Amino acid sequence: MSTMTRDSTSEELGGFLDRLGQTLTKRPFYHAGGWLAFFVVLVTAQWRTGEFNFGLSLANEFINISFYIFVVYINLLYLFPTYLKKDQYWRYLLLLIAVSFVFTPLKLVLKYFLFAGVEGMQEDLLSNINAYFFSTFMVAGLSTVGKIMVDWIVENRKKVTAANESMQSELRFLKSQINPHFLFNTLNSLYALTLKKDDKAPDIVIKLSEMMRYMLYECNEPRVPLRKEINYLKNYLDLERLRQREGIDIQLQVTGNVADQMVAPLMLIPFLENSFKHGVNANIKDGFVRASLHVEHRKIHFELENSKGSIMPRQPDAARPSGGIGLVNVRRRLQLLYPDAYTLDIKETPSTYAVHLDLELVGN
Question: Phi-psi category of 256—alpha, beta or left, where left has phi over 0 and alpha has psi -120 to 50?
């Protein structure tokens, strides 16, 4: 019973602290906190000069802070949005000076009569009118600087958030183009084997099941363990070996230390898909797909070479990247996920197609 009571009390305390934190981060509360801190600084500074006792310093700076508040919020709520944000710089400056001219005499008159009995106060007020005006204008000016900085920070946060949301949306779209493409190709192969009642069909079903599990349940994360990505590639090639004709040379060599490295999912598979689409599946007598992956601590080197048919469809646009939509997508994903952290070199000859990718595993 006591344990349940302690748990309930802890939950209530946690809820209270959460609500308190949300309340204190609202604008009126942190504005009030800022003014209170400024007031304490002003009172402490004047009291330590020894010119006034603590009570008189408190009253004097309370008047100062009250007029500062009026000037600052006239500036922030009216002058700043009405004139400065509309690029009316000179009108804004003149009106800010005018506001300071109006409130400074009002403050001095109030102090003159309230502190009439304080020795030397009236003489100080009359002899330092310029200093009082300058201090009012400076506080208003600093509020403008602070407002500009806050607006700049907020605007940049919005831009960063919008850019991240746009990037994530584009990545989801690009990845969605990869998964169905592979799935449909594999189902077509499976369908062809089932028509022939080929004994390889059950093996393909098992491999496909493992790959589907990986794509559906693990590839939703921004990064996946490199060892799982390599296992996915091996399953894919095993599946291709099952459905390809005899004599096709399919290899994947993995070297280096595969430990806890993380990589963006489905980054390498488009290259392999492309090699089978344009290489082995072409009308070639002795086709091959030879891939190698060398793993370092925070870097991978991927090389792939495949045979290519002597007669290939001519691309209508010479500037279009080789490999079709799959490689266009992988280039875009590399730009989004690994900017300045990869090099991709693709070379094509009449009989071969080669890919070399160096990728730094940043952000792991």
Answer: left
